[in-house]
TrEMBL record:
Transmembrane domains' residue ranges: 43-60, 69-86, 92-112, 119-140
Lineage of source species: Bacteria, Pseudomonadati, Pseudomonadota, Alphaproteobacteria, Hyphomicrobiales
Keyword annotations: Membrane, Transmembrane, Transmembrane helix
Keyword Transmembrane helix attributed: yes
Protein name per UniProt: Tryptophan-rich sensory protein
A family per Pfam: TspO_MBR
The keyword Transmembrane helix belongs to this UniProt entry's keyword annotation: yes
């Protein structure tokens, strides 16, 4: 469990620190539904804990397909921030977040019958990434 929490939470915190929004992001036009900056830290901390627990559960149960999907979504998750905030590419970040959304949906589907708790742990993450996808799309359209 600790390994998966370290990967999800530690990796997320590291990437969030290295790719923190800066002046480029501040000057972007944002949609009315853009949350205040202080929301992101607590939400992501909570989500990374849930993601880590779900990863540990599927790994411990030797569920191969969900384990691969967990690794895929983690890679896509960690790729999004550098593309969006560091490379200043909301267009490419949008592609990545759509793939991330698909990976999360596939993970929920793959675990729904075999490990319902892991599927349920991913539902808040699914909701947040669906919202983040809409936000990414809106920022791309407003600034493209």
């Amino acid at each position: 469990m600790l390994v998966f929490l370290a990967i999800a939470l530690g990796g997320g915190l590291l990437i969030g620190t290295v790719t923190a929004p800066g002046p480029w992001y501040q000057q972007l036009e944002k949609p009315a539904f853009n949350p205040p900056a202080w929301v992101f830290g607590p939400v992501w901390t909570f989500l990374y804990v849930l993601i880590g627990i779900a990863g540990a559960r599927v790994w411990a149960r030797d569920l191969r397909s969900p384990s691969r999907l967990w690794l895929a979504q983690m890679g896509l998750n960690f790729l999004w921030s550098p593309l969006f905030f560091s490379a200043h590419r909301p267009d490419l970040a949008l592609l990545i977040i759509v793939l991330l959304l698909i990976a999360i949906v596939l993970f929920v589907g793959a675990t729904w019958r075999r490990d319902r708790a892991s599927a349920l742990l991913f539902l808040p993450y699914l909701a947040w990434i669906a919202f983040a996808t809409a936000l990414n799309f809106a920022i791309w359209r407003l600034n493209g």
